[in-house]
């Protein structure tokens, strides 16, 4: 059994990306009887999905968790829905800046993740690790990847997946006064717990987790 864990290369002027550092830290580890396989993806529209396709073919995973960096967030944010929209506020690492474009033409307007996110967040909070649910993965490469991933997994019965946004690392936040951060060790432990819960939980908790606005 394999779990594919993806992270992005640095973007937006940063020299590191916590999503890749966290994924790399878990590469080769066994969690819940499954081997973790980490893959670094380019922060580039379309190319990220091409790299994902190669990783899916090579790994043949039973579970896929994609990670991304989200400055301004203060915890591990478990995304619930990906929208079929690219609308980039800044260029990607190849200089592309699509505006009001579909991720996949003719695909549904949205895809939901299939991780037991409520159970994961509840477990993390019980263990003192900051975590929350999120209703928006944005409209940059993270959402692009999340939508593309779930569109692909719709054709792979039994394979579940989702997306997690991570805060900045302290060394990044030091250059951006006022931005929240978490240590890498906390992120890694949180992801370890998340993978354990995802592998062991088939039905998510039936508890309120929505937002008023």
UniProtKB/TrEMBL annotation:
A Pfam family reported for this protein in Swiss-Prot or TrEMBL: Peptidase_C15
Q: Which GO terms describe its molecular function?
A: pyroglutamyl-peptidase activity
EC number per UniProt: 3.4.19.3
The leader peptide range reads none
Matching CDD domains: Peptidase_C15
Q: Which UniProt keywords apply?
A: Cytoplasm, Hydrolase, Protease, Thiol protease
The catalysed reaction is:
Release of an N-terminal pyroglutamyl group from a polypeptide, the second amino acid generally not being Pro
Annotated GO biological processes are: proteolysis
Instruction: Write out the GO cellular component annotations.
Output: cytosol
What subcellular compartments does it reside in?
Cytoplasm
The record places the active site at 79, 142, 165
UniProt cross-references to InterPro entries, sorted A to Z = Peptidase_C15 (IPR000816), Peptidase_C15-like (IPR016125), Peptidase_C15-like_sf (IPR036440), PGP-I_bact-type (IPR029762), PGPEP1_Cys_AS (IPR033694), PGPEP1_Glu_AS (IPR033693)
According to its UniProt entry, the function of this protein is described as: Removes 5-oxoproline from various penultimate amino acid residues except L-proline.
Q: Which NCBIfam families match?
A: PRK13197.1, pyro_pdase
Assigned protein family: Belongs to the peptidase C15 family.
Summarize subunit and interaction data from the UniProt record for this chain. Answer: Homotetramer.
Q: What is this protein called?
A: Pyrrolidone-carboxylate peptidase
The species this protein was found in: Rivibacter subsaxonicus
Which gene name does the record give? pcp
